[in-house]
Amino acid sequence: MSQATSSAFNTRNRYYNPVSRIQSLIQNLDAELITLCKQCSLPKNVGSASLNNDSTISTAQGGSQHHQHQHGNSANSLIQQSRPTSNANSAGTLAPDAHKRMLRNTYRTRVIDAYRNRRIFTVYGNYHTVRRALVRRGWLEKLPASRHAKLQTMSEDSLLEHARRGNDYEAVVLSKMINNFPAFFIWQSKGARDLFAEVKPYRNRVRRSQFLDFSTKVGLVGCAEQERWFREDGVCGMSYPRVYRLGANSVEERAAFIEDFHHTQARALLRYLKEHRPVDMVDLDHGIVLSTTIDYALNKVKNMIRQKEHYSLDDARIKMPTPTEMVENQSFMVQSTKVLHTNAKFKVNEKVMTEYARLAAQYLDQIESLRPDYRWDGCRNLWILKPGYQSRGIGIVIRNSLDDILQWTSNNQNRKYIVQKYIERPCLIYRTKFDIRQYMLLTVSDTQVTIWTYRDCYLRFSSQEFTMDDLRESIHLTNNSVQKRYKNKLTRDTRLPKNNMWSLDQFKCHLRHVGAPDGTWAKIYNGFKQNLTAVVLASLDETELTPNAFEMYGCDFMLDEYYNPILIEINSTPDLSPSTEITARICPLAVKDCIRVVLDIPRNPSAATGLFERAFQVNYNVNKELDGTRPLELNGTQMKLFESLPKIKTNPRSRLLRKILNTVPIPNGNKLSKDKSKESGQKKVLVGKSAGNKLSRASSKALDVGAKTTLNSTTRENLALQYTAPK
């Protein structure tokens, strides 16, 4: 009895977990996992789940810890033995393939859904904030060739083996599957070719002609020339320093710059007289500059005032100076440069200089009331030269000599230099120059162009204190790409930031600290919007209004001494890298809000736009008939000015002149011609009577009037001058 019982017990232990039961358990688990995979984006590992379930079952059935371990090992060994010898329905050989098939089907479902809903995007460059914002909205990325280049060389099966939710393998697999589909959102560089234009994707580029591309220096000059046609007080208006394109072969523009340089020199001399005491500028015995230099400057500014007050198109034409004027200009430039650069003394007495200073202040006030941008000028006549198609401060120099400027632009014709009046009287913070980086977003829909401005911005400081005696870039260029190459000056004010950046809140606090008028920031921000609106409107004539196009710009402004914003330049690809703690906060927020405006507003007009606000909107209609068969239509009604024509009163003076002309004695030669004309008239009348036609009284009067003799031109002009001259 004991032997039989022991043998039965050993036999039962050996076959306690049969292979058939384990196989059925694995198949049931696989079926459950397939059901779950249809509901989830990624399935679990079938093999690992099966093994975990087997070990759990064996653990529950065993009694002791040693028995559980021994029993689990026997189950695992039986599974491993059964898989290679099982039939085609065995889960051991099909588990990896089934896993890949389920992943592939799941990914294909996601790809088809993304294509149907236009949610495939491509981002060139390291704009991870854009990627995260799109993925969070359910978009799939079509990878460019440079992103995950090594993984893109792997086969799809190899990628599926390592694909997990959110990892790079999954991203590459999805990208391979949507490779033949177009992208409906493209974030690309400015020079890249516009792909998939037929599906009208959201693209971060708004194309326009080179002449009015305000993201370049040359194009911004073209917009400054056109914006006067769109200027409207309180809505749009451009505050921009005077600028000339010297890189082009334009003789007129070169002559206009030379004339402006001479005018600026005259105003600089008058400002010098206004800002200095008369006793410090005169030396009757040893002075080297004569008073004729001041007289020349006063006459020049006086003529400028007269021209601005009575402006006409004839005044706009550039007139080449005569040889005498060229000599006078050259002499004035030499003498005034001695005063402005070396503080040379005038050879006049103090009383005369006091009167000159009074006239100088009077003329400056008059001309600056007509041209507010002249208030930005100082006493140095400085001009800044910029390459027409470069950014980040590359190739920028500052000069105050006319010959140096012309020589520099002539030697660098290929860089298309522009010359711009340097702002010599900017707003300073603790004796340091700064500018303001403001973001603008431009969106184009089927019927509208919308200008969005960002309600947050930041300030960028120079690393050195501001001075006009030193023209190095570390003092006068506030670009972060320039200033990061220099160390902050040790004697600079300690209240300035070490990273040379301020947030908007810090700037507002400074305005309150220095006692700026209430509403100063609101005035500055409104000036930003008016400048940017004017620029965009000036460029619309040569802008490609492609639906779904958008672009975010980095706009640089300066402030004058009265907190009026001055537009300096606009960048089409602003630096959005977290270079400081200020940009690390504002740049990602600006990009996220940009995606909100571009993607959320078309689907829901009341969606949140973050800190972007609508500054201006332009409605336009595009003729969608590409064949051009639709003719131009003009609809309207005729306008009546008068129901009946008014009676025109004749001028008494004209009646008097007519009476005088009728009573003027006729010379003998004219009498003869008059008699001949009478005879011919009588003959015509007789012929008419013989034909049986009678002349009416009106026709006879007409013959009498036509028979009168007219005066020659000299007599007529003398009489007209005599009797029409004002008394």
How do the strands and helices of this protein lay out in sequence?
Layout: H1 2-14, H2 19-39, H3 46-61, H4 65-85, H5 91-116, E1 120-123, H6 128-136, E2 140-141, H7 149-152, H8 156-162, H9 168-177, E3 185-187, E4 202-203, H10 217-226, E5 243-245, H11 251-275, H12 278-281, H13 292-309, H14 313-316, H15 323-342, H16 350-370, E6 383-387, E7 397-399, H17 402-411, E8 417-421, E9 434-444, E10 448-461, H18 473-476, H19 480-483, E11 501-503, H20 504-513, H21 520-539, E12 550-559, E13 565-571, H22 581-603, E14 612-619, H23 652-662, H24 668-690, H25 697-707, H26 713-724
Helix pairs in contact: 2-3, 2-5, 3-4, 6-22, 8-9, 10-21, 11-13, 11-15, 11-16, 13-16, 23-26
In percent terms, what proportion of residues is strand? 5-15%
Q: Helical region count?
A: 26
Unreliably modeled segments = 1-17, 41-76, 78-94, 669-708
Quaternary structure classification: single chain
Helix content: 40-55%
User: What is the radius of gyration?
Assistant: 43 Å
Structural class of the secondary structure composition?
alpha+beta
**Sheet with the most strands, sense and barrel status:** 6 strands, antiparallel
Shape: elongated
Count of distinct strands: 14
Overall mean pLDDT: 80
- Distance separating the two termini: 158 Å
